Amino acid sequence: MIDLSQLLQPDRGQAARAIHVVHPDRWSDWLNAQPQRTRTAIGANKVTGKAGNRAILPGDAPDDWSMLLVCDEAESSPFRIASLGEQLPAGTYRLVEGEPGAAMLGWVLAQYRFDRYRKDEKAPGPRVLLTGEPGRIPETIALAEATFQVRDLVNTPASDMGPAQLEDAAATLAKAHGATLTVTRGDALEQGYPMIHAVGMAAARGREPRLIELEWGDPEHPRVALVGKGVCFDTGGLDIKPSAGMRLMKKDMGGAAHALALAGVIMAQRLPVRLHLLIPAVENAVAGNAFRPGDVLKTRIGLTVENTNTDAEGRLILGDALAKAVEGKPGLILDFATLTGAARVALGPELPALFANDDALAAQLLDAGTAQKDPLWQLPLWDGYDEMLKSDIADMVNAPDGPFAGPITAALFLRRFVPKDVPWAHFDLFAWRPTSRPGRPKGGDTMSLRAVWAMLKARYPG
């Protein structure tokens, strides 16, 4: 992978090609201020000042040129110049009008390539952007590295991304930051985390279920728990998915990828918290010992769950992980999961559903999402639907009959494992982009990570 730290450099007056980013509202004034040679080149390129117009502008020497982009995105948008970070040739660049600011992130993200299985393709050289705000570089690089990690983890097929590989990723993170790693497997998992064990017990040898935990930070600091759904492949279990529904199920560990990556940002930026990362890692496989529809499952907190759908397995493993997180008496719990297709039907692929048991926390997250151009949409923890989780033979079911309120009933199931006095937010996200946009290629991607990081920074100032 390219060294991201070299893509953003302090501007010390070094040689660089110029980039002009002009808003359509300022187009006429900007154009009138240009020399005739520039206006002639702009006319020859049929640039009219509409958003998206671009042109190569000639300089004084034959090999001297600059780039023009007409852009109507706000200066606060991370993706204002992402298309240039993706398409320009290798070299060093400087914005002529103002500082790149938030757009530094999109510049770096645009240079992502997933080439693990395409070694024959030569990667382009780095495109370096200069900035007069060097203090913004470390955080920007940390967020970019987190995004690249999520993309790599989600894009990797299940043959090379199982529970063991998620454990390896957590171990690498722990080693890099001096954190403590604990992994629970086998009999200890079956006894202490029965739902995680039940979901993953049909997986092949080497892909056994486990609970991965990482702890970092000063024990005197506020305790924050991050929980990520780590279903490394989801067949649907005995309630097996059709082939079309199984096609993208390598991404069902996208919640775990988000939690891992966010933990990396928290530790790299030395946020003053006591971090507790929990990843229940499983493969929902089909075998003779797979858990069955109608089975009654035990849970870590003693409740029983009638399994009405083996394809509603994510909430099961999260339930046990949330129960463990609560035992540490955290001041905040955040969980990330590619949990329900119904959330995608309601909100589409780019807009994560947010649930929270604390109105102030929800407001902080929504405001941060708006500010960071990383939007969230809150759905209600509607008490009236709690009765849909009733079971005739157990304390609750994992999935109600019928098509109604799928994301809400899933969140209500998770709420059973979190005390009312513990602030908690649940993110039901897609972790995948079905189409490419500048800085956001088709494939695995972060959704809500920047918003959550901004909220955490504000909540726990250094």
UniProtKB/TrEMBL annotation:
Keyword Manganese: yes
Annotated GO MF terms: manganese ion binding; metalloaminopeptidase activity
Cytosol aminopeptidase domain sequence ranges: 309-316
Keyword Protease on entry: yes
Pfam (any one): Peptidase_M17
Keyword vocabulary terms for this entry: Aminopeptidase, Hydrolase, Manganese, Protease
GO biological process: proteolysis
GO CC list: cytoplasm
InterPro entries: Leucine_aapep/pepB, Macro_dom-like, Peptidase_M17_C, Peptidase_M17_N_1
Signal peptide bounds: none
The family this protein is said to belong to: Belongs to the peptidase M17 family.
Protein name as annotated: Aminopeptidase
Organism: Sphingomonas turrisvirgatae
Organism lineage string: Bacteria, Pseudomonadati, Pseudomonadota, Alphaproteobacteria, Sphingomonadales
